[in-house]
């Protein structure tokens, strides 16, 4: 049931923002479901006992925030919410980000094996052909929808025994710090657009040639020791990468 709205005339918060906050609460609580059509501006303004200009301003705020979408000739609808991921500014794992936001997620391990690295991985992890890496491929799901595909190469030179972990329940970053007896201190990330091949599309429930965000990452332990390299495919219809910039 839609939560009742009442103007707080003693609040310093503008009325349009009070309405926007009320709408946000209905959306985030699931009272208004994604794809649900809102009442017309005339009906809603009459119900809330406010003028249409104030209501229109509140709706515009939520459209800018990506919570509502206006379709010409059809009306205003609750938009599908994207998950904000501070991938561009914090060295934080998917699991850490989701736990901090209170999301329930599931990890499926598709492959876990010890291999000899190819020449590109050797260069990124500063190892040789005689060294071994743990290769890990996983799919992460939110609300039972596959959202992110991760392929990781971890240097066993600095993390012996890490292959024994259950990565459906354990964060890779946590395991690296445990088995290396060190701390992850810095990382590099490169972002690009990528068209999915058929195998990748099948993993993430999309179509061949659909665009995704491709993230190329290398993380380092103390003393600038490269420990892990990863290739990440991120669904941009489910995720948005955020960054806070200062000057």
Concise synopsis of the structure shown:
The chain has 247 residues and is an alpha+beta fold. The protein has 7 helices and 10 strands.
Describe the protein.
The protein has 2 domains: 64 residues, Arc Repressor Mutant, subunit A (Orthogonal Bundle); 159 residues, Chorismate lyase-like (Chorismate lyase). The protein contains 7 helices and 10 strands. A hairpin with a 3-residue loop joins β8 and β9. The model has no long low-confidence stretch (mean pLDDT 87). The protein is of the alpha+beta class. Strands 4-5-6-9-8-7 form a 6-stranded antiparallel β-sheet.
Secondary structure elements and pairings:
Blueprint: H1 15-28, H2 41-48, H3 52-64, E1 68-71, E2 75-78, E3 83-85, H4 94-101, E4 105-115, H5 119-125, E5 133-142, E6 145-155, H6 172-180, E7 184-195, H7 198-203, E8 211-221, E9 225-234, E10 239-241
Parallel strand pairs: 3-10
Antiparallel strand pairs: 1-2, 4-5, 5-6, 6-9, 7-8, 8-9
């Amino acid at each position: 049931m839609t939560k009742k709205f009442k103007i707080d005339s003693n609040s310093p918060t503008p009325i349009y923002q009070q309405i926007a906050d009320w709408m946000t609460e209905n959306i985030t609580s699931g009272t208004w479901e994604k794809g649900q059509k809102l009442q017309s501006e005339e009906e809603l303004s009459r119900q809330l006992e406010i003028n249409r200009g104030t209501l229109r301003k509140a709706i515009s705020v939520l459209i800018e925030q990506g919570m509502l979408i206006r379709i010409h000739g059809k009306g205003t609808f609750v938009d599908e919410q994207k998950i904000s991921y501070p991938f561009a500014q914090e060295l934080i794992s998917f699991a850490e980000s989701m736990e901090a936001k209170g999301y329930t997620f599931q990890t499926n391990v598709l492959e876990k094996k010890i291999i000899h690295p190819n020449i590109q991985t050797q260069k990124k992890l500063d190892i040789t052909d005689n060294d071994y890496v743990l290769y890990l491929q996983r799919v992460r799901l939110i609300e039972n929808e596959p959202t992110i595909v991760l392929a990781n190469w971890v240097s066993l030179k600095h993390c012996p025994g890490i292959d024994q972990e259950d990565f459906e329940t354990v964060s890779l970053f946590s395991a690296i710090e445990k088995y290396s007896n060190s701390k992850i201190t810095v990382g590099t990330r490169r972002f690009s657009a990528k068209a999915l091949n058929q195998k990748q599309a099948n993993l993430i429930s999309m179509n061949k040639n659909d665009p995704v965000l491709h993230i190329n990452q290398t993380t380092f332990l103390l003393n600038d020791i490269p420990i892990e390299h990863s290739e990440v495919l991120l669904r941009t219809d489910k995720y948005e990468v955020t960054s806070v910039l200062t000057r």
